[in-house]
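Single Protein Entry

Contents — chain, fold
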Amino acid sequence: MPDWLQLMLTSFWPLLRAGLVFTVPLAILSFGLGLAVGLLTAVVRLFAPKPLAAVAGFYVWIIRGTPLLVQLFVIFYGLPSAGILIDAFPAALIGFTLNVGAYSSEVIRAALTSISRGQWEAAYSIGMTTRQALGRTILPQATRVAVPPLGNTFISLVKDTSLAAAITVPELFQQAQRIVAVTYEPLILYIEAALIYLIFSSILTALQGRLEVRFGRHGGFMERAR
């Protein structure tokens, strides 16, 4: 067996384990929390008083206008100078959550505004409040619009978690760096890490496709019913 193949077989499980133990949980937690932040931000920007909407807009502007790596460095390396110490994994979780929240808020806001005014009026005509109309009528329809771009956001997030290696989170890419430091085989190890990311992304892409088909089917039923 060639030495390069033996190295790949030997290192595959340590890399995959780092991906399953750190990369995947970090991505799932960040995305779930980021969606909550994004929904709240989108609703505030659309329906809250102007001062609150301005604060939400400022948050989105800052996060979207600065690199994710810089944001992670500010949280992990910068905040300690202000007396705020955060461990590596929570720092990465905060950074990715804020980043996902800003980008997903724009997706959700666009999805909400894509729903016709007639849907609001129909909800009001049967006695719903604004909150009820939003939760029972508008959000379910907006979800169908938002699923494809949010799915793409999650797939991108899984790959972006490799940036957590820069703040010492022992995820997949940092594990590859550690093995490279011992074996001095960067080409083989980094290609193998890329292949594992590719596997994760391919699985998520397939799941996203099934989810879009499901929402599209339900949406088609709703349109025929109307």
